Amino acid sequence: MRDEVVGPAGPTTATRMDKFTRQMLEETGLLGMIGKAERGPAAIEAIKDNKAVYLMAVGGSAYLVSKAIKASKVVGFADLGMEAIYEFEVKDMPVTVAVDSCGTSVHNTGPAEWRVRIGKIPVNAG
User: Fold this and answer.
1) Rounded to the nearest 5 degrees, what angle is found at the Cα of 61, between the Cα atoms of 58 and 63?
2) Is 14:35 a contact under the CB 8 Å cutoff?
3) What is the CA 117 to chain-centroid distance, rounded?
4) Helix (H, G, I), strand (E, B) or coil at 64
5) CA atoms within 13 A on the CB side of 89
6) Sign (positive or negative) of CA dihedral 38, 43, 45, 50
7) Are strands 85-90 and 96-99 parallel, antiparallel or unpaired?
8) What is the pLDDT of residues 43-95, one digit of tens each?
9) Could you read off the pLDDT of 39-50 as tens digits, one per residue?
10) In 1-126, at which residue ranges do the beta strands (DSSP E only) sit?
11) Binning pLDDT at 50, 70 and 90, where does residue 11 land?
């Protein structure tokens, strides 16, 4: 018997869920979401307004993510199967905070920071 609680747990592209983010956060009390893509302005605003977080996992990391899940239960939309809302008990899950509870998105701050860092790298034109 395999020792995974849920089997491979690959993140989905969260952007397609942006139009449902506010409703899910406000009607379920959801504290956080996991996906693998950046979130749009409406989703970021909903995350901020509800003091939630968006965690990003690397695509292709389904095995590593599944190893961090210690317990799982469906808490909403069971009829959607893999798209249902699950409550996970996790330990050392390999995710990054991509949008924090204040609405700060790494997809905005990261490129700005790297533009500054890259701009300081000397270019050898010779």
Assistant:
1) 160
2) yes
3) 26
4) helix
5) 6
6) negative
7) unpaired
8) 999 999 999 999 998 877 788 888 999 999 998 889 988 778 888 899 998 89
9) 999 999 999 999
10) 32-35, 53-56, 69-76, 85-90, 96-99
11) confident
